[in-house]
């Protein structure tokens, strides 16, 4: 009876907070010359394919007791607000017929930022190529940015810059430049963002996915600050001091407003900005490298948020192994590889050092004059420190134990990291070869499997012989005979185990518990952190393909529960504390168990892939 009464209430609900998202955004008033304004029109024939109820509750868009039911009134509010398409330059110059009743009263912005794909390397022509910013949501002292991908071809896409002409939205002659997105992209974004966020990797998140005929879609994305480093860098490259200052002031104000930053009284806010960027990019470079996340960091600062969160999952991957020679083929250029990301993160920090100096002095010095800056040396120290912390986490130590070992057993941690790094990079003799979207080299070792099995295999802290060790270490690309039996490999196997044993003993002595108990705890945590059925970029794309094949047979509620259960099984963080909204969201499954087993098999089959 209570549910029926609530459903009746939903029919009458106007969802006023959703409908208030109307293109109004403080960035437009704060940073002039940093965006292009577009009128928008309602885009018909849309249906809500996915809605993130827990996230909507966190943002205050729906009530905390709202059931996970897509009522007509809720769908109407979402479509009225987000099912839109820009009226672009092509429409205006070609006199595209548009019903005046479909045109929204406010203009929406496509923001300008630096992008390496553009002929202009200073950000004059680049920015949001198929996205617009819908507005902001304020709730309980927090401010959220809301943007949509797939809303039409803007003048800031690479296609317009390269071809020097405007494109009709949906033009089949271009791909990225046509302004469209797909439901498939949206669902990949949903799964990736929710899984990574719950596993200690910050990302933008997906509020909803709108489906249109022919597989097209709009993905509505949110974050507490969706500015990228590239939103700063274009003004820096162009020598636009006032615009750069406006962006920096706006960004700092938002970080303080959301409680993410607390600038000490008397400290220069720009120096604080610089120092936080040092910490942020050391942290994400370490996490990406430690957890095999390929994010294509580059000099333009385009593929990551300024707060370190992942954005635009089109080129993002989570590898099953440390594929350090994988590169993505982007037609005109090759991407960086996962080992090069730390250098790109360092260069991003160097650019922030340059721009902060510019903001304070009023003079723009060349970037190379900051290559030996003390903040870069601090970045190097923090990166190594964070790499060691992340490795200890993967071994299975908890945060108090990690803090102790970093302070009182650092030489053993150093050796563990050095040997682990050697072991995880052992590659196949066949060398680099072509893969579907680039090039790669197979890896012989799976150190996640090693860290998972070692606590149970190392009885009484006795080291394993080389053959037993390599049997555990081997990936699906290898057998014992595949490994090169070199002196260096033998030494690193010995040093890795010796350091591992020393760290267990140190922890045992510090906590007054037996080594057997410490090993048992490590085993329990390592089994979750290094769970073998871990998604990769390949498996996630295949899972979404299978979901879309069966989409017509799923109700909205069945698809939502399928996604929630899939995400829940991929939470490999033993310290994850689910919110009340998340606990209530994951209900008993109402989808086909047979189909669910099929997609879980895809995860298993591709668990060591790209």
UniProtKB/TrEMBL annotation:
One of its GO terms (molecular function) is metal ion binding. This is Uncharacterized ACR, YdiU/UPF0061 family. It comes from Pseudobacteriovorax antillogorgiicola.
């Amino acid at each position: 009876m209570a549910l029926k009464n609530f459903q009746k209430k939903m029919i009458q609900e106007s969802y006023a907070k959703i409908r208030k998202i109307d293109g109004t955004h403080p960035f437009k008033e704060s940073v002039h010359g940093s965006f292009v304004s577009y009128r928008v029109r309602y885009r018909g024939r849309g249906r809500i394919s996915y809605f993130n109820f827990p996230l909507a509750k966190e943002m205050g868009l729906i009530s905390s007791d709202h059931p996970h039911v897509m009522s007509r009134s809720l769908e109407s509010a979402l479509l009225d607000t987000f099912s839109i398409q820009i009226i672009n330059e092509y429409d205006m110059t070609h006199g595209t017929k548009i019903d005046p009743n479909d045109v929204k009263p406010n203009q929406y912005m496509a923001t300008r930022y630096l992008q390496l794909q553009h002929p202009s390397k200073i950000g004059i022509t680049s920015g949001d190529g198929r996205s617009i910013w819908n507005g902001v949501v304020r709730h309980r002292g927090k401010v959220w940015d809301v943007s949509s991908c797939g809303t039409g071809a803007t003048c800031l896409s690479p296609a317009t810059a390269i071809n020097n002409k405007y494109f009709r939205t949906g033009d089949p002659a271009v791909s990225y430049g046509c302004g469209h997105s797909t439901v498939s992209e949206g669902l990949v974004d949903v799964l990736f963002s929710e899984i990574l966020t719950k596993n200690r990797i910050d990302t933008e998140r997906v509020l909803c996915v709108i489906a249109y005929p022919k597989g097209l879609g709009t993905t509505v994305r949110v974050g507490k600050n969706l500015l990228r480093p590239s939103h700063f860098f274009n003004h820096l490259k162009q020598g636009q001091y006032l615009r750069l200052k406006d962006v920096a002031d706006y960004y700092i104000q938002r970080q303080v407003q959301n409680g993410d930053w607390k600038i000490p009284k008397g400290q220069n806010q720009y120096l604080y900005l610089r120092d936080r960027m040092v910490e942020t990019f050391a942290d994400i470079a370490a996490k990406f490298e430690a957890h095999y996340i390929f994010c294509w960091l580059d000099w333009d600062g385009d593929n990551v948020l300024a707060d370190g969160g992942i954005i635009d999952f089109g080129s993002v991957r989570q590898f099953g192994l440390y594929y350090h020679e994988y590169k993505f083929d982007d037609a005109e250029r090759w991407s960086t590889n996962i080992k090069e990301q730390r250098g790109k993160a360092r260069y991003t920090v160097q650019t922030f050092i340059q721009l902060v100096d510019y903001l304070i002095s009023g003079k723009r010095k060349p970037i190379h004059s900051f290559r030996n800056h003390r903040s870069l040396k601090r970045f190097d120290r923090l990166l190594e420190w964070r790499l060691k912390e992340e490795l200890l986490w993967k071994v299975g130590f908890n945060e108090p134990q990690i803090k102790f070992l970093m302070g009182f057993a650092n030489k053993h941690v150093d050796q563990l990291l050095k040997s682990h790094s050697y072991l995880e990079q052992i590659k196949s003799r066949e060398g680099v070869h072509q893969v579907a979207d680039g090039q790669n080299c197979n890896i012989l070792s799976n150190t996640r499997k090693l860290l998972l099995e070692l606590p149970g295999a190392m009885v009484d802290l006795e080291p394993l012989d080389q053959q037993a060790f390599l049997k555990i270490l081997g990936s699906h690309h290898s057998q014992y005979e595949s490994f090169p039996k070199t002196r260096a490999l033998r030494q690193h196997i010995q040093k890795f185990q010796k350091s591992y044993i020393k760290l267990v003993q140190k922890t045992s002595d510090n906590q007054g518990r037996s080594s057997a108990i410490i090993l048992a705890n490590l085993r329990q945590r390592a089994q979750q952190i290094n769970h073998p059925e871990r998604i990769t970029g390949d498996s996630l794309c295949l899972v979404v393909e299978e979901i879309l094949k069966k989409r017509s047979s799923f109700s909205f509620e069945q698809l939502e529960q399928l996604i929630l259960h899939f995400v829940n099984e991929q939470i490999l963080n033993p310290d994850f504390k689910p919110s009340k909204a998340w606990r209530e969201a994951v209900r008993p499954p109402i989808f086909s168990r047979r189909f669910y087993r099929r997609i879980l098999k895809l995860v298993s089959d591709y668990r060591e892939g790209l």
